[in-house]
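User: As part of a screening pipeline, I want to sanity-check one entry by hand. Below is the sequence and the SMILES for magnesium ion. Please return the complex as structure tokens so I can compare it with the automated output.
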Amino acid sequence: MCGIVGVISKAPVNQLIYDALLLLQHRGQDAAGIVTAMGTKVFMHKARGVVRDVFRTRNMRALPGSVGLGQVRYPTAGNAYNEEEAQPFYVNAPFGLVLVHNGNLTNAHALKHELFEVDRRHINTESDSEVLLNVLAHELEIAARDLPLTPEQVFKAVSAVHRRIKGSYAVVCLIAGYGLLAFRDPFGIRPLCFGEADVPEGKEVMVASESVALEGTGHKFVRDVAPGEAVFVDLEGRVHARQCAENPTLHPCVFEFVYLARPDSVIDGMSVYQARLNMGETLAQRVISTMPPSEIDVVIPIPESSRPAAMQLAQKLGKPYREGFVKNRYVGRTFIMPGQSVRKKSVRQKLNAIAQEFKGRNVLLVDDSIVRGTTSKEIVQMAREAGARKVYMASAAPPVRYPNVYGIDMPTKSELIAHDRSVEEIRAFIGADALIYQDVAAMKRAVGTLNKSIDGFEASCFDGHYITGDVSAEDFVAMAAQRASQGDEEDGQRSRLALQSASEP
Ligand SMILES: O=P(O)(O)OC[C@H]1O[C@H](OP(=O)(O)OP(=O)(O)O)[C@H](O)[C@@H]1O
Ligand SMILES: NC(=O)CC[C@H](N)C(=O)O
Ligand SMILES: [Mg+2]
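Assistant: Here is the complex for your manual check:
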């Protein structure tokens, strides 16, 4: 889950893209990049790091033009440490294309081969996004034989891209001298929306991963890009749209609502904040049916993402909600950091207990999810050190039991604390006195009730059902093997073990 944005304006867009990327920073902390275009010339700056560190004044000055795009990266393919894999990616033919991608292709390894052998295209990194760009370039080359380029030709190319690539993808692509193209995979797994603003110079159109980027930069939300749909915005700001997939259905990733997205975003008509409140409400019912609420003195969230769920749960239980952990605002999100060793170290750097909220009390700690168990194991320990009598733990999401292949970096089952472990075994591992999980159906209901017209959720990490239906055992192995050679020593060792023992999801 990276954050992507694209803008067409009549005024300079460098600062606007920077501001939008800051609003999407929670979606990726490893690298950031911006490309702008003036006429047909494109200007790029990308590097490892968060937005504030990557762009200095001199870099911003070197990004002129009124069209552009940007990305904040959280790698799910390739390597977090490789600057070359930071986005955007550029190819010079046809036209000059620059692309940003959120998601993960499940057939990147096969496509890479095919691109080289058949299409005569060379891929220079391990990034699936570079593969995606080259497939699009190849198809656009075929579709756009007659010039000037028309929206029709662009849509034809996107239809061909849908037929070739598999997995999840929300994409924004700049076609130098023509405009911006945005499209979303046929299941709408990763989010993408667009909005407009009237600026003194004329109309401005922005495409972004989350509505918060539109709102925070003064754009009026227009709508989500539909699954399979392509939206082409020409240089005058005219929006052309076309459904380019054969059987599109809307199955947004449920993990966006659990953890990934900002609570103030609305995705596919569903408020992320309300979804989290609802999950807190249903989790409360689970708690009540598991233990007498009289055994709980206080409800404490594990900041940041669990707050809305914990708040609602406390209210439902009729128990006080207390901020027992203080978050160091200068430490980023630990789950999306590269490498297990740095994630472990960061939990204690990030969170610290306020002893008076724990001393002699039975505390119910609430998190939005337990994935590798890194956070909960440390936090339970910290609660005990702070003097808690009993430490109960509740998760607003169900156990994460299966790898994710659609843009969340958990490619192997062996790294998941809930894989092949019973709830009792997980409880023992994290050292809690009780552990209560949301169940899968309740989670889907809690979120799905906010938009009755969706077809369902992509919830494979919880239910093992991979919505694209075409991820082969070979794809799983290729993705895990690719990640095994990246990350840190601890990640690598785990992935290698997983590869030895399994070749199925
Ligand atoms: O079981 P784990 O592998 O530790 O992963 C789950 C934890 O990671 C996330 O927090 P994170 O610190 O990334 O971000 P937040 O501040 O948004 O909660 C999530 O909210 C859980 O707390
Ligand atoms: N999280 C993402 O969306 C990642 C995008 C792309 N697969 C990369 O690794 O750079
Ligand atoms: Mg958290």
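Points to compare against the pipeline: The chain has two domains: 3-249, 270-448. The mean pLDDT is 93.
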